[in-house]
């Protein structure tokens, strides 16, 4: 059961990372702009979104063990 939960969490986080990358790329290639407007109307620097998405994807692919350890040893699991 716990292994299935880990796969579900990892898959969901990969989708989030890919969505960040796609949002940055959409701004570059479709709009030919360095900025895009977020939900509240503020400007977001597209290269920053790309870097965050790629970094997040890198961590999920190559450093998943440390990510998993951080998720599994959260504050809510500790006994006091």
What does this structure look like?
The chain has one domain. It has three helices and two strands; from the N terminus they run H-E-E-H-H. The protein has helices at 2-29, 46-62, 64-72, and strands at residues 35-37, 43-45. Strand 1 (35-37) and strand 2 form a beta hairpin. The model has no long low-confidence stretch (mean pLDDT 83).
Tally of DSSP helical segments:
3
Q: Mean of residue pLDDT?
A: 83
Q: Shape from CA axes?
A: elongated
End-to-end span in angstroms? 26 Å
Number of domain units: 1
Classify the secondary structure makeup into a structural class.
mainly alpha
Element string (H = helix, E = strand): HEEHH
Question: Spans with pLDDT under 50 lasting ≥5 residues?
Answer: none
The biggest beta sheet, please? 2 strands, antiparallel
DSSP helix fraction: 55-70%
Strand content: 5-15%
Lateral arrangement of strands in the main beta sheet: 1-2
Supply Rg.
16 Å
Q: What is the tally of beta strands? A: 2
């Amino acid at each position: 059961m716990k292994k299935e939960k880990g796969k579900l969490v990892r898959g969901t986080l990969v989708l989030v990372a890919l969505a960040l990358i796609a949002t940055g790329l959409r701004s570059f290639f479709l709009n030919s702009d360095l900025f895009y407007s977020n939900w509240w109307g503020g400007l977001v620097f597209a290269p920053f979104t790309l870097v965050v998405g790629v970094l997040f994807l890198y961590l999920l692919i190559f450093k998943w063990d440390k990510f998993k350890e951080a998720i599994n040893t959260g504050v809510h699991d500790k006994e006091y």
